[in-house]
Automatic annotation (TrEMBL):
Location(s) in or outside the cell: Cell membrane
Listed InterPro entries: Azg-like, Azg-like_bact_archaea, NCS2
Membrane topology, from the record: Multi-pass membrane protein
Gene Ontology molecular function: purine nucleobase transmembrane transporter activity
Pfam families: Xan_ur_permease
Gene Ontology, cellular component aspect: plasma membrane
Protein name per the record: Xanthine/uracil/vitamin C permease
Domain of life: Bacteria
Family stated for the protein in its record: Belongs to the nucleobase:cation symporter-2 (NCS2) (TC 2.A.40) family. Azg-like subfamily.
Keywords noted in UniProt: Cell membrane, Membrane, Transmembrane, Transmembrane helix, Transport
Transmembrane segments: 12-32, 38-60, 67-86, 92-112, 124-144, 164-180, 187-205, 246-268, 288-310, 322-339, 378-407
Keyword set includes Oxidoreductase: no
Amino acid sequence: MSTTFTSRRTEVLAGISSFLATMYIIVVNPAILSQADLPFSGVLTATVLLSFFCSLMMGLYARNPIVVAPGMGMNAFFTFTTVKGMGIRPEIALGAVFWSGVLFLLLSIFNVRSAIVRAIPQPLRYAVSAGIGLFVTLIGFENARFIVANPATLVSIAHFNDPIVLTFVFGLLLMSVLVVRDVPGGIIVGIILTTLVAWPIGRYWGDASAINFGQKTLVNFQGVLAAPDFSLLGKLDLMGSLSWSLWPVIFAFAFTDLFDSLSTFVGVAEAGGLQDEDGQPRNLNRSLMTDAVATTLAGIFGTSPGTAYIESAVGIAQGGRTGLTAVVAGCCFLPFLFLSPLLSIIPAIATAPALVLVGAFMMKPITRIDWSQLDDALPAFLALVLIPFSYSITQGLIWGFLSWTVIKVAVGKSREVSTGLWIVDVFCVLALTSGH
């Protein structure tokens, strides 16, 4: 009996640890999607609901100790590429998220995903993951006004006599130290402390800085509790999002989510010894099905696609091995449904350091690219750099795939271009000719 009790206690503590490692998404996701003209409180409600229900599904159905929540990178793609870059209404973008989830579900049900995964060269998968990390980092620097536009050089570093920039630097260094020292919930602790430091801006000093940032004051206390905001529930435009011009967006959502999920499941399984007898991640089919459901529900709830979180490795390191870990983590999200006024006080310069660090976490896969093999490395490099430089995950994917095909054919290695990749290339060309 004591062994069972200890085991359950370990799983509960592991679930709390995983939640602390992932709870920053409750603040960061609304902060990003609110820039796509979606209400902060509505996105917060959608984020919590998605994280709660889908983490429970991961625990009870897939029986894996993995947290599911709106994915970093996907929220940036939703806001800065789809809504702001392409000028698509948020409701239509939510519809695209829904259809990408349906596509992901179909790929999972009919097991097409394995053929697709085999079609995409491994170096490109690594490069896209790292490229999204650079994209998220760039957004973090931009949100903090640390990187600013410059007509002579396109971009430049901001002046360090600005209290907002100094506050961001403080938050970045503080959060980095907390994460390196493995402080539980280090990112969320850093966000809270940076918010406290930002409080005087616009109140006691630096009024001009706050006004230049678009606000009279950076931190505005509006209370602690409020009823959940369900204004985004069911607001997606299903028919408008089926426009031909949006299929590249649906494709990018679905396949980026697929690659991200697979890499997460593989990484977490290796970290925790959660493989089956064939050496594959445990319950992979059910886990991918859960991920697909998360993306479908995301469109309905009113947020960007959901995905498995690599931060779940924190709970696994604490001893989490069963679905109970994910269930506990999911339940920890639920109370935050009622805290939108309190969380909305957190300014962009407090969440910006978290974006920079998340970008750093996503860079690890590039170490697995053989940079001496140029016919592999050059397409991977193009995918890596074009995602942040073009401000578009889609463009990075397109040019990575197309350059891989052209280079391999030109050097006499056309056998390394699979039939599946040729099909993907057709979609890439259609995406370019459609103007997106």
